[in-house]
Design a protein that fits this description.
Length: 79
């Protein structure tokens, strides 16, 4: 797994969770701009945990500003 693959997956997960067009989401997309409903965060967090076997607690999800920040955390946790 490389960072670009993780970002591509995160874009896919965000598009599904937040009901957005994936073409509108990139590495620099601010997660809070996508939406702040907890159910959306839970859905995205669950997708990440299922795909990468890492724990991204929903309570901490808001600490990650961009899709790229979240990718960095996943890369660190997966090592």
């Amino acid at each position: 797994m490389n960072r670009e693959e993780v970002i591509a997956d995160l874009i896919k997960f965000a598009a599904m969770a937040y009901k957005k067009d994936a073409s509108e989401i990139n590495e620099e997309t601010n997660l809070s701009d996508l939406g702040v409903q907890s159910m959306q965060r839970v859905a995205m967090s669950a997708s990440i945990e299922d795909e990468y076997d890492v724990s991204i607690p929903v309570a901490k999800f808001g600490q990650y500003k961009t899709v790229g920040d979240l990718a960095d955390v996943i890369m660190e946790e997966a090592e």
